[in-house]
Specification:
Blueprint lengths: L5 H15 L4 H20 L5 H22 L1
Helix pairs in contact: 1-2, 1-3, 2-3
């Protein structure tokens, strides 16, 4: 593991990208669920703490939103 969780950051970055692309409600919910499951698995395997996963999720979400705002 490490600080923050790179898997959570990437999973939530992809989820935010899909949410912003208007792919539809079902696809958006499925990708968001996948990001949550990736994050949960990192904690269940005791690779990361909940703090590391939350920070990874926040980092992935924030960076993706900022890139979307900057380039859109």
């Amino acid at each position: 593991g490490g600080m923050p969780s790179g898997h959570a950051a990437i999973a939530f970055s992809i989820a935010v990208s899909v949410l912003l692309s208007d792919s539809g409600t079902l696809i958006s919910l499925m990708v968001l669920l996948l990001a949550v499951l990736v994050s949960q698995s990192r904690m269940m395997m005791k690779i990361h703490s909940s703090k590391e996963v939350w920070l990874g999720a926040a980092l992935g979400t924030t960076v993706t939103l900022l890139l979307y705002i900057f380039f859109a």
